[in-house]
Amino acid sequence: MHSIEPSGLTQKFPPDFVWGVATSAFQIEGAAAEDGKGPSIWDRFCRLPGAIADHSDADLACDHYHRWAEDLDLVAGLGVDAYRFSVSWPRVRPDGDGAWNGKGLDFYERLVDGLLERGVKPYLTLNHWDLPDALQCRGGWAERNTVHLFVEYALGMQERLGDRVAAITTHNEPWVMATLGHEIGTFAPGIRDRAVAMQVAHHLLLSHGLALQALRAQGSSANLGIVLNLSPVHAATDTEADQASARLEDGRLVRWYMDSLFKGRYPQDVIDFLGPDMPRIEPGDMDVIATPMDFLGINYYSRSVISAAGPWDVHSSGRTVTDMGWEIYPEGLTELLLRLHRDYPVPPMYVTENGGAFKDQFEEGRVRDPQRTDYIARHIGAVADAMRQGVPMAGYMVWSLLDNFEWASGFEKRFGIVHVDYANQLRTPKDSALWYQRFLRAQGALRSQAVSDTTRARRGRRDVAIAGA
Ligand code: FCB
Question: Is residue 196 within a helix (H) or strand (E), and if so which, with residue range?
Fold first, then answer.
């Protein structure tokens, strides 16, 4: 595998393009029952027999709750502009309603201040899947009351941190929570009921809109948005059956979210397909969902290929797959961004997650992961391609800073650009982290070049103005 040097990516990104790296609370923090934290639905799910591939849980994970300062040094050392992290709702308000947990709030205050001290912009996500288990016992996201409690939670976090974070994301990947969590059941809370899943999807979207309105009414200074997992959906063959299945999947994965958020309606083909499984929608809900956003985050890992006859054999594409078995398909990111820009009145877009699980090789103290570097470089190139074709992009963030608890896959799948030895919590930047650091330095140099070019141009203009005066 050849390694791609920063010089191989000479595209000049705009000077205000935000480069970042991302994590989420449940996957790295550990301290599952410390300092007053309540259990989340994922704490419970991990204890179900067979739910997690390696039978692990995230009680300790990367012990980030205690090692946050060292981890923020790693973030700053990369040279990124931004760090995307999430707050654990049950750490700050253990029962989902009722008393707030001061020690939990203090943790996020330290984290945000620690980022600012290191010159890194905090990008906060409110819900990266770890709903307080106490709320699940009362129906979870299927209950409309959870929507209102989420708004209270959003306002509580804004009160504490709103003046210092650059961005607040309401939800990370509502499709995953609704579909994997409530229809397929492979993610927490492990329910298998399509009608429940669609009610959850509706409530997540509604709570997003209501939270945006409430945060703005309180004078939020942060940029507000949502993060969706989106992919181009391709039919495995051009038979009518495959094409129809792919269209429906596009409706369920992409248009259900994009049409409601940007057009204030659910797609008719999905409504027809769902029939009695359509969620209950109250008057005014759709307008709330379509509340304008400041940014849209997109998590992209692969395309989706649909075959009416059953699961598509990824190896038939002849392409390389990651350790998750996900096809490496960078041009799908360009295709997706162009389509979103064409079909919807989107605000500035970020790639809020992109990265790959691969098996690392240790060699003389180094962690060699050429495939991960190649994956990241090719996807950054795909973003550049979309920008060259007119899509205004605001930023790109690598998933993930650290190897971490990869949900139902446990600790077996490693996405980090920094290796974590779970036996002693030792962090070792992989070659991909060193590459990203060099790439960002090169971008920084292009950036200062751009700044001095603009200054020169401005000076030039003034000269002209003076000459003409
Ligand atoms: C996304 C999740 C993130 C991580 C990556 C691999 O769906 O948002 O937490 O697990 O996948």
Answer: helix 194-217
Over residues 70-89, the mean pLDDT reads 98
Assess whether the C-beta atom of 24 lies below 6 angstroms from ligand 1.
Answer: yes
- Per-position b or e across 245-254, b if 16+ CB within 10 A of its CB: bbbbbbbbbb
The Å distance, Cα 172 to ligand 1 centre, comes to 9
316-361 residue pLDDT tens: 999 999 999 999 999 999 999 999 999 999 999 999 999 999 999 9
Fold classification of 14-468 is TIM Barrel (3.20.20)
State yes or no: is 353 an active-site residue.
yes
Task: Kindly give the number of the ligand 1 atom that is closest to the alpha carbon of 24.
Answer: 9
Strand ranges inside 245-348, DSSP E:
295-299, 304-306
Q: How far is the CA of 416 from the centre of ligand 1 (A)?
A: 12
Ligand 1 proximity of 399 Cβ (cutoff 6 Å): yes
- The full set of domain ranges for the chain reads 14-468
Share of the chain above pLDDT 90, in %: 91
